[in-house]
Amino acid sequence: MIVRKLSDAGTQGRTVSADGWESHRLLLKSDGAGFSFHITRIFKDAVLPMHYQNHIESVYCISGFGEIKDVASGAVHSIEPGTIYILDKHDKHILRAFEEMELACVFNPPLIGREVHNAEGAYALTAEAIA
After folding, report:
1. 59 CB contacts (<8 Å, ≥6 apart)?
2. Which of 3, 103, 113, 121 is most buried, by CB atoms within 10 Å?
3. pTM for the whole thing?
4. Residue 105 in contact with residue 40, Cβ under 8 Å?
5. Which GO terms describe its biological process (predicted)?
6. Rg value, the chain, Cα
7. Adjacent-strand bridge partners of 48
8. What is the C-alpha to C-alpha distance for residues 77 and 79, in angstroms, rounded to an integer?
9. How many CB atoms lie within 10 A of CB 47?
């Protein structure tokens, strides 16, 4: 059994941040669950182009308000508490936060823990991540 508290993530080295976001990585590849689980804050006014070429991501909005744009189709979807979106086709997207958003995120394959977005807006898939 694994039990962790969000409030301990920073002191455990499980918090990663970059321009526009901060992620508390509560479950990682090293935990052996087959997926990773994060609580992520998207800062107000952030505009984040992303393209998870190596991962499937599921995102549930806990609080805040924003939108996600599917770059391929141009479709824009409102994100608010109670909304889930799943990037099941490695969808290239743009996430905009009109106010700070708190999101629960699941990644498969699981993240190692220190990843940040590369120039394409993806997390690299390292040999360690697929081992």
Report:
1. 84, 85, 86, 87, 103, 104, 105, 106
2. 103
3. 0.87
4. yes
5. ectoine biosynthetic process
6. 14
7. 95
8. 6
9. 13
Amino acid identity at 67? E
CATH 1.10.10.410 fits 17-130, yes or no: no
Q: Is 51 exposed, middle or buried (0-12, 13-18, 19+ CB in 10 A)?
A: middle
- Do 66 and 98 contact (CB within 8 A), yes or no? yes
The three-class DSSP label of residue 28 is coil
Q: What is the DSSP letter of 53?
A: S
Residues 6+ apart with CB under 8 A from 32: none
**What's the pLDDT tens digit per position in 1-27?**
999 999 999 999 899 998 999 999 999
Q: Which amino acid is at 26?
A: L
Length, in residues, of the chain: 131
